[in-house]
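Quick one: structure for this chain?
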Amino acid sequence: MPPIDTTELLFSKQRYEERRGEVRLHMSHFFLRYLIDIYQGFEGDLAMAIVLGEISHYNTGKFFSPEKLTNASLRELQNDAAFWKGMEGCNAYSMSCATGIPRETVRRKVAELKKRGWVEDVPKEGLRITKACADHFGADYSLRFLNGLLRASRIIEQLLADGEEEDLPNLKAKPQSKDRTARNGGPERRKSARKSLSPAKSGTQIKKKKT
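Got it. Here's what it folds into:
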């Protein structure tokens, strides 16, 4: 793996070195969970998952750019089945070159993907993912992966941010019940209690020590 250009880093390298153990573990927890889900979803065949992912990326290349914040044409592709016919097809050879997986292995994986209805071989066009594939990996997979990705990224961003050390907030939202609010005396009571602890309100004066 070639060395990374440190001028392209989106974070402070010094801050990373200070917190690298924590950052690496948060990254590891997310990616391990991700790999386990992929492993289970493809019945242990990670090569088939890679081939399917590469076919998908090739097909959607002219509709999507990772450099753009929004991709209107991709949204049209998602909502209109006719746009699926406009996807650019590919072949086993190009997938082998892109992934490093031997061509014969790619062909076997493509044959299995076609059996599952996730890939079709369009005459004179090549391999394309199907709407059934997008639907299969839609709601459950996407929501779970996105939630885990955002949680990990927000924690890591806080670890790499400059500032004082503090405990990370609980990122899982838990609505406060009315009973709990009542037991704590309600917002007005808590506000009043905080005011009573203020030195200015209690009449406490801090005298300067004479030198």
